[in-house]
Amino acid sequence: MQKSSVLKSSPRSAVPEGPQRPEGPEGLEAAAGRAGGSRVGRHR
């Protein structure tokens, strides 16, 4: 559950080495998948 909290609190920290920015929906999905947050990843 902490991973989800961190993702929502600071999605940028979730994907610091990601080529895409967490500004868009793609970034959020990538961050969730990387951190293991199927909750946001399966939101679509």
Portion in strands: under 5%
The largest pleated sheet is described as: none
Mean pLDDT: 56
- Distance from N terminus to C terminus (CA atoms, Å) equals 20 Å
From the spread of the alpha carbons, the general shape counts as globular
- SSE-based structural type: mainly alpha
Rg from Cα: 9 Å
Number of helices: 4
Number of strands: 0
Low-confidence segments, ≥5 residues, pLDDT <50?
Answer: none
- Residue share in helix: 55-70%
Total domain count: 1
Q: Which sequence of SSEs, written as H and E, runs from N to C? A: HHHH
Structural account:
There is one protein chain. This protein is mainly α and 44 residues long. It has one domain. Helices cover 61% and strands 0% of the residues. The chain contains 4 helices and no strands. It has helices at 2-9, 11-14, 25-35, 38-41. The protein starts with a helix and ends with a helix. The model has no long low-confidence stretch (mean pLDDT 56).
